[in-house]
Amino acid sequence: MSLDAFYTLDADGNYEPRPEARSPWSADMMHGRLLAGIVARTVEVDDHATDGFRPARLTIDLFRSPTMEPVVVRHERTRDGGRIRIVEVWLAVGGRDVARATVVLLRTGPHPEGNVWSRANWDVPHPDDIAEPAASGQRSISSMQIRAVEGRGMGTDAQRQVWIRDDRTLLDGEPLTPFQRAVLAADFASPLGNSGDLGLTFINADITVYLGRLPDGEWIGLEVGAHIGTDGVAVSRCDLFDTEGPVGFADVCAVANPRMNR
After folding, report:
1. Relative to the CA of 154, which of 78, 203, 243, 260 has its CA 20 to 30 Å away?
2. Backbone dihedral region of 217: left (phi > 0), alpha (psi from -120 to 50 degrees) or beta?
């Protein structure tokens, strides 16, 4: 499926949001996960992910709700060593900074020999073997296809496991890259980790994505690995997968918020 993109670029290279970029929290609020996607694209198109350097961590602090206005991006390479490269990115909407991100890129090379423990691939159905949302009553949010493992989707207090695929790109005619897909999906660690049998009453203030490798294919799997919360503050962690196995982790912190309408 191919849908119109979330943004167009204006004459100054700013991201002009289309209505589809709207957050489910508010009619005049842009979806925070798209800001993370813009950061990922910035790192790639401005030649930071070059010379054998690969993104290993992206952290974005979402400290102000972005309105549905153009997103202005500033970026700077603040560290350029032999093995570690760091890029800082600032995003402004309506003349005010709304988010700040740090991307750590590491130089790739021969992998050391030896065995190191890592978790096994999860034993869940392939996304193609799970019924389409329209047929199963699952949700499609802002062109994001969500296929939940049976009994482990939103609205349950069980450990949640879902496959996610974005059918909409950031810009027309520009396919999502593996890095962008991973970052866009990682924001779902907040609603997936913080929702329960009474719905979603938390909104995340950040996203951190760790990638041991870039995902292959369009589907990103998320499995809630941990959730801790008290006094209106919560932290959650999800393991990230593609159809071949684990790729990384997504961490979020969140603050209590009036319940999202279903």
Report:
1. 243
2. left
